[in-house]
Amino acid sequence: MGAEPTIPELVVPRGPSWRAWWRARPGRTRAGVYAALLALAGTAVFLGAAGGSGPSARTPVVIPPAPAVAAAQAQQPVVGVATAQASVGAAASAKPHRPADVSSPPVGGARYAGAVLSNTTGAALAAWNQTQSFCTQTAWEVPNGSVYTDRSDDTVLTTTGSPGSCVGLISPQAYSSAVIEAEVYFPPLPGRPGTIADWSSFWLTNQAAWPADGELDAVEAEPATGVNAAAWHWGSAGAEQSMSTDGFAQQGTLPSDGPNLTPGWHVVDVVYTQGFFAVYYDARLFTSLSSGVVTGAPLSLLITTSVTPDNGEVQAVIGNAPQNSDSSPAGLAVKYVKVWSYK
């Protein structure tokens, strides 16, 4: 296998994360989008729609089988067992992965977890589909991604590969003090197997009260660098503040205490309460923050991915061409989302 191409030196604006720049840029109006999101909260959105957003119109992608959750519980790093180019036959012959055991503790952050509040899988998780409302927040986003469940009962989010293609899940519940865990497959970028494809994210926020209520990006494969980062955002309208593991945030750099994410199946745990959060990857602490800026406000969980286009508007915001956009259909998969109370 040849060496990965060298990424050129980047000219990156110093400040909040890429998602925050999109929200805060001049001329941005969020009120209409937020109202729509609030109106849709707690409802199941139809998974199929004209124009290619439903399962009948999707382009199939291959999601490799997930490794056992027990590997992460033994604090062994969970790595991708195959790439998205694995044969369809191999994936079809794999035994379905058993859904998460409701009685088991979180893989990461178990000492913070109280009672199990929910364990969402399969069709119930796919019903969180909010693509048609979430993927209209910028001019370049196109809500044509698909959400469906595969034969292993994994919930799969796929883009079409076209510029701006977007898809997203939003939890109907909001959490102010909880431990949240999901087993997620992050697809590799073709030709760069160590890079997560597309703007793939696992995050918490209240979009109707952003940034005042806060935003916790537990996973964000940043398009400007192609590298995953975790971040916390807070502040007021027109004065958003942030800290991030990427080193670009004006209010400081969050510690990187463990290995960063690479493509493949991973268990992501988030501990969130007033004054504290922690993010774990495969049972290992990645970053944390103890500070009064961590609001503890009720935040919904979002699992989203989109193909960042290479155009002048994007380059003006992130400082260079996007580094992880996949022009072929890419699939992000979620096996389960479990939530515990914070004790």
List keywords for this structure.
343 residues; mainly beta; Jelly Rolls; eight-stranded antiparallel sheet; globular; disordered N terminus
State the helicity in percent bands.
10-25%
Beta-strand portion reads: 25-35%
Question: Overall mean pLDDT score?
Answer: 81
- The SSE order reads HHHHEHHEEEEEEEEEEEEEEHE
Largest sheet: 8 strands, antiparallel
Tally the helices: what do you get? 7
Alpha-carbon distance between the two ends? 48 Å
What would you report as the Rg, rounded to the nearest angstrom?
18 Å
Number of domains: 1
CATH topology: Jelly Rolls
Say how many strands there are: 16
Per the principal axes of the C-alpha atoms, what is the gross shape?
Answer: globular
Low-confidence stretches: 1-16, 25-57, 69-99
User: CATH top level?
Assistant: Mainly Beta
CATH architecture: Sandwich
Category from helices, strands and their pairing: mainly beta
Task: Walk me through the topology.
Blueprint lengths: L17 H7 L6 H10 L28 H5 L14 H6 L19 E8 L1 H5 L4 H4 L11 E4 L5 E4 L7 E10 L2 E9 L1 E2 L2 E5 L4 E5 L9 E7 L6 E9 L2 E6 L19 E10 L2 E6 L2 E7 L8 E8 L5 H7 L12 E12 L1
Antiparallel strand pairs: 1-16, 2-3, 3-16, 4-15, 5-12, 5-16, 6-7, 8-9, 8-15, 9-10, 10-11, 12-13, 13-14
